[in-house]
Amino acid sequence: MAVPSEARPMVDLDYEQQVKVFKALNSEVRLRLLRRATEEPAISAPDLAKEDEFEITPESIVNNLNQLEEAGFLESSNVRGPGNRPRKEFTLRGQGRSLVFEVIEDDYLFTFEEADVADY
């Protein structure tokens, strides 16, 4: 399998970063947060906490979003929300990430690459 030049093989990441990636993907809540990040320009914990989809506190949502950011899936920015209060908004990193995981005998390949975004 050819690895695109902009892809970063998982074996090139240190184990600490690899663990962050796998832990981030090992949660139904974080997977649903990633899905929401693909559907909206930006997501924030206070807005998500008001919906029935996430039955956890805003603080727990922020912790999960932070884990996705540390793993390289999201990026955050500090913005002013309602009432001019500061809050973090999260967006997909770059134009999104493509995740490839391939296990073969005596080796494995795991890469991140920029995703091509389809125009509809």
Topology:
Layout: E1 8-9, H1 15-25, H2 28-39, H3 45-49, H4 58-70, E2 74-80, E3 86-92, E4 97-104, E5 107-114
Antiparallel strand pairs: 1-5, 2-3, 4-5
Question: What does the model show?
Answer:
With about 120 residues, the chain is of the alpha+beta class. The protein has one domain (about 10-80, about 85-115): Arc Repressor Mutant, subunit A (Orthogonal Bundle), CATH 1.10.10. The protein is about 35% helix and about 25% strand. The chain contains 4 helices and 5 strands. It has a 3-stranded antiparallel sheet, with no helix packed on it. It has a two-stranded antiparallel ribbon with strand order 2-3. A hairpin with a 5-residue loop joins β2 (about 75-80) and β3 (about 85-90). α1 (about 15-25) packs across α4 (about 60-70) and α2 crosses α4 (about 60-70). The radius of gyration is 16 Å and the shape is elongated. The two termini are about 30 Å apart. Residues about 1-5 have low confidence and may be disordered.
